[in-house]
Amino acid sequence: MKEINSSEFEMDVLHSGKVILDFYSTECPPCEALASKFEELSMLYGKDVKFLKIYRQKNRELADKLGVKSSPTLLFFDDGKEVAGRLSGGVKRSDIIHNLDSMLPSERVAEIKSLIKPTVSEFDVIILGAGPGGLTAGLYLCQSKINTVLIDIALPGGNVATTHEVSNYPGFIEPQAGYMLSHNMSEQTKLCGTVYKVAVDVTRVDLEKKEVIIDEFETVRAKRIIIATGTTPNLTGAKGEKELKGKGISYCATCDAKYFEGKEAVVIGGGNSAIEESEYITRFADKLTIVHQFDKFTANKQAQDKVFNNPKISVIFENEPRAFVRDGDKIVTEIENTRNKESRKIVSDGVFIFIGMKPNVDLFKDKLTLDNWGYIKTDEDMRTSIPGIYAVGDVISKKYRQITTAVADGTIAAMAIAKELD
């Protein structure tokens, strides 16, 4: 594996056959998460594909010329032509392998795959999920000198990382950007000594054996497991929603609101997330329509007051979406009145959906005791129905789901485990 600069790009990339090039940055958690995967794969594929790295900040002109806008970004070349599709952000090992395999003959791919040997690693505690609950548990455990690994299919931070602003986290007078709050939590836990295995594929979870298989080849074993897998956004179920996800329909204001400068948007929902994110979206959009199924919002009063006093926002109560259709550059949202069943259409530049969340329990939902809504039941020490298995954060059955409650859950589970393993 070699590091190059802009002056070497033409010779080492465009005239070097098969090449994978990593544009990385410093102080970049996704880049750090990718580094070990990149190095490991270079040992497997290095005889067939040239592995190169380039420091994006010092080669910005080249990055701009190639349209590289974020770090890390992986580019794949074959005889000077870009192939396979770019990868960026929280890059998974399986996605890199998929691209590399597409550049090689199937016979050679089979030979390389035969060299991949299963590995086993041992820890005291596995934490599944790197949101506030999981990160806090990792911090407390490492401070107790307990060997802990934190596993996540994405990058650390959980849903907080995509929240534009957090105004109610204790200790901060000014509202904090969600990505920065989660970044600081992650760095604190990492610097303490918790091992990170993030942006991985979780192949299987065996709660009885306390084993987790990641990326199909690495088995991670521990004495205890903390489940901190959090939640994902609910879907409306309306026609066209799945097809337009990421193509006009978004579930993340922080990610996509910036693209609505001078445009119109629709928000579906009426809880805290819908109302607070609507206020944020109007920093960019000229007009926003909130569609809510009930005759009043369920969000906190302060958030409601901001929305009702915002001249950019209009509200349609007692209506639900029935279909989303793309019409040129616009999204047509068909809504239906829940009382008289009358339909109408709203034309906008895009739709944001905030109608609650569902627990991420698919890998073990048949093994644990759940409540009526599918959340994991725990006792006061965060123990689940299986000995040695704990659960914390938004994935558990509780009345309130906030950053602060997730942090509290992580603290309790870690202290309970530390006492058991002492």
Describe this structure in words.
29% of the residues lie in helices and 27% in strands. The chain is an alpha/beta fold. It has three domains: 2-114, Glutaredoxin, CATH 3.40.30; 120-232 and 357-421, FAD/NAD(P)-binding domain (3-Layer(bba) Sandwich); 241-353, FAD/NAD(P)-binding domain (3-Layer(bba) Sandwich), CATH 3.50.50.60. The strands form six sheets. The chain has a five-stranded mixed β-sheet with strand order 1-3-2-4-5. Strands 9-8-7-13-24 form a five-stranded parallel β-sheet, with helices on one face. Helix 10 packs parallel to helix 11. It starts with a strand and ends with a helix. 40% of the residues are buried. The mean pLDDT is 94.
The first-level CATH class name of the largest domain: Alpha Beta
Continuous helix count: 12
Query: Which architecture of the largest domain does the CATH hierarchy give at level 2?
Result: 3-Layer(bba) Sandwich
Helix content: 25-40%
Instruction: Note the overall shape.
Output: globular
Major sheet details: 5 strands, mixed
CATH topology of the largest domain: FAD/NAD(P)-binding domain
The end-to-end span amounts to: 43 Å
Could you give the count of β-strands?
24
> CATH homologous superfamily of the largest domain?
FAD/NAD(P)-binding domain
| Secondary-structure class | alpha/beta
- Report strand order across the widest sheet: 1-3-2-4-5
**What proportion of the residues form beta strands (DSSP E)?**
25-35%
- Radius of gyration (CA) equals 24 Å
